[in-house]
Predict the 3D structure of the following.
Amino acid sequence: MPVTVCPPDGALPLPDMAESYDAYFSSGLYQRRYPRPNRRTMRFLRAALPIGGRLLDYGAGEGRYCLALAREREAEVVAVDISPVARNHLTATVAEAGLAGRIAVVDASGTEYRRLVNGSGRFDAVLLGFGVLGHVAGRANRLALLKDLRGNLAPGGRLVLGLPNVRRRFRAAQAEAAVFPGLEPGDIRYNRDAGNDTIALFYHLYRREEIVAELAVAGFAIEHLTSESVLPEYAVTHRAIIGWIDDRLSGILPVDWGYGYLVVAVPRR
């Protein structure tokens, strides 16, 4: 069942993330900032997803990961997003690419999601890519989502998770967060400038020990915990050579130097 996401108790109203991402995708800014997959994340996904396997892409956006994997791995994909604009864009792209038989695009709160993602343990890999979990407000809601997704993993299946590193992200917004009542440690509000519009967003930034603790509570064991990238995500997704260099650096530098964390986890037995 989809998880109902609510603001933390006592918090001021948080941005409506579906509306925020509708604006983000409508402006074209998201595609300009992140035009292609992060090669490091994609490599871990390829290792997790067998040829002809099943992928649940939760927070698929315009499909920068699931489109490639549907082609390369002949994967059967359920692509989930809360933004109607993103779903419409992805549905059109899927049709143009001739992948409608491989990729189902659904709303996390819709009946089609409940039909396809029903806790039956059918997915070989679940992707919560670049910061998707961090956009869920409230630790209880994030844990509920992780537990829900765990129930959809097949035996031997893997969760691939990208999380923002509190040490590297939004220092000014972290300082400002202290004035907002009801926010949990690590929560921030920030704005993204999209030309004529300002897009209000919520994020939860993670400490490494918090990742370990939350995944344990949700019933996961960590297989890999590494850097998602050292440079900002927009840098490594714009030029292939930068992505290649960053991938090498991410493998040798301390994990807490990462712009984000990349986690591969399996259901704990």
